[in-house]
Amino acid sequence: MSKEFTVPPVIFPSGAGVNPTIGNINQRRVPTAPFQPLRPPSSSSAIPFMSFDIGSAVSSSGFYGGTISTSAASGSASFDDEEPLLDELGIHPDQIWHKTKSILNPFRINTTAHKDSDLSGPIFLYLSLCLFQLLAGKIQFGVILGWIVVSSIFLYIVFNMLAGRNGNLDLHTCTSVIGYCMLPVVILSAASLFMPQGSSVPRYAMAGVFVVWATRACTNLMVALADGGEEHRGLIAYACFLIYTLFSLLVIF
């Protein structure tokens, strides 16, 4: 047997009975306009809120209504006035070739070409010597570089000690001269690739010729480029002979 219950009716309050200080919770808020920044007075630019004023660039209208500036075309023309990349890096191929060619004649060394010292040519000769040694099956990049540094410091100290107060040889010039005079050793390393390994006497004789060549060239340059070395030419030649003998032993053995 079911029992019936009476449910009282639900009455929703109208807006008139709402407290004005609290407000109606279910009332929808009217959306407000988004924030927009102020625009500059001169809105001639195609991009809003931005203004481009680069010199006196001439702009022309594009197909889609934008502006195409011709300042890039005028700026690209300034690249023609810049120096080549090798000149900016301090690498002058003509100067390097002129200095290298002056070493080829062991009896007449052009000392005027070496007054402006650089390290680009010595680095090139160093890499050439390492390449020829690599072709011979000898990986000696670090050994050759270390010996060049030690030899430059050694000859710099010996020359300035012999010249005394009159010595004006700097380390940069000394390294440049030793590097350029490595050309006979580089030629020896290239020629040794075509010689049989069993023939020791011809290799020693050829190495002696190239060592004397490098020693004579380095001695003449040292005496001509720095003051106070003419009276100690023999001792300077002995130091140069020891340096290039060490490099020739790397090639032979």
What is the topological layout?
Layout: E1 59-61, E2 67-69, H1 71-76, H2 85-88, H3 93-103, H4 120-135, H5 141-163, H6 171-180, H7 183-191, H8 200-225, H9 233-252
Antiparallel strand pairs: 1-2
Helix pairs in contact: 4-6, 4-7, 5-6, 5-9, 6-8, 7-8, 8-9
Word description of this protein:
The protein is mainly alpha-helical. Helices cover 49% and strands 2% of the residues. The protein has nine helices and two strands; from the N terminus they run E-E-H-H-H-H-H-H-H-H-H. The chain has a two-stranded antiparallel sheet with strand order 1-2. Helix 4 packs across helix 6 and helix 7 packs antiparallel against helix 8. It is elongated and about 135 Å long.
Key words describing this protein structure:
253 residues, two-stranded antiparallel ribbon, mainly alpha, single chain
Largest sheet: 2 strands, antiparallel
Task: Report how far apart the termini are.
Answer: 121 Å
Structural classification: mainly alpha
Secondary structure tally, helices = 9
Helix-strand sequence: EEHHHHHHHHH
